[in-house]
Amino acid sequence: MMEFQHVYVAYSNNIALEDVTFSLENPCFLTVVGPNGAGKTTLLKAALGLIKPSSGSINVLEIDVLKEPKRVRRLIGYIPQMERIDFSLPFKVRDVVLMGRVTKTGIGRRFSAEDLRKARNSLEIVGLEDLWNEPIAHLSGGQRQRVLIARALAADPRILMLDEPLVGIDPTSKKTILEVLENLSRDGVGVVMVTHDLNPVMRITDYVLLLNRRVLALGRPNVVVSRENMSDLFGGNVEIVRMGEICYIIGGDVHGGSGARG
Ligand SMILES: Nc1ncnc2c1ncn2[C@@H]1O[C@H](COP(=O)(O)OP(=O)(O)O)[C@@H](O)[C@H]1O
Ligand SMILES: [Mg+2]
């Protein structure tokens, strides 16, 4: 699904990713976790070919991202961090979801019945079929996030990449999004989710990548999420509580950013 080899990314003098190496063979649910400034967004953008590493190689779906970034991007649904998107534009929900079909249809062509069907179906998957004609400006943050996921799904992605999709959204949207991701992953769609809060995905993620500029660990959630690893990653006092099969993280500077800067 995805392979990074000795990837370095720097912004002017600031090193965001340092010797990042990891590999995941089959489509799976990967959660990338780390404090603010850990390079999580940078890692996604590099995987999408939106940022060029200063050295190293990246393959996604067995395509060399540096050589064929556009081909890679056609296969990936990307949901960027919420606050970077302008929702003041006078679009309706259906316009936004149909944008996901433009990669298939090409700009300037009319939408086909298939495009409309696909868009409606994608909106249904995220539980918002009733909002088809609603102006996007009327929606809550969580609903907007679900619309953006529907837009990505309308393009039939092989991998969905989401950057902090659960931040600042209502519990219903949160629950729906997690269910959608779980189902997609079960259907063989790759999911790469960036977060600073692992607890909501502990049960559904296949692998966890602990990132703080470098890769601290990659593995199964219940193996990687140890007290030692999480303290290293976030700093401060961290406790791991096991409940049945699943463990949860308590405490630490999980929501702060002190661990990554400097
Ligand atoms: N466009 C940019 N220009 C300069 N520095 C940047 C830019 N984007 C990110 N950075 C820096 O790179 C580091 C990693 O950022 P980012 O990938 O956004 O981390 P995260 O998503 O984990 O919070 C941070 O130190 C950040 O300040
Ligand atoms: Mg980020």
What does this molecule look like?
The protein is built from eight helices and twelve strands. It is of the alpha/beta class and 262 residues long. It has a single domain, classed as Rossmann fold. The chain has a six-stranded mixed β-sheet with strand order 6-7-8-3-9-10, with helices on both faces. It has a four-stranded antiparallel β-sheet with strand order 2-1-4-5, covered by helices on one side. A two-stranded antiparallel ribbon has the order 11-12. The longest helix has 16 residues, at 171-186. It starts with a strand and ends in an 11-residue tail after the last strand. The relative contact order is 0.17. The model is unreliable at 256-262 (pLDDT under 50). Adenosine-5'-diphosphate (ADP) binds next to β2 and α1. Magnesium ion is lined by residues 40-41, 81, 163.
Work out the count of structural domains: 1
> Kindly, what is the distance between the CA atoms of the first and last residues, rounded to a whole number of angstroms?
32 Å
Give helix % range. Answer: 25-40%
Would you identify the CATH H-level superfamily?
P-loop containing nucleotide triphosphate hydrolases
Mean pLDDT: 91
User: What best-fitting shape do the alpha-carbon axes yield?
Assistant: globular
Query: Helix count, per DSSP?
Result: 8
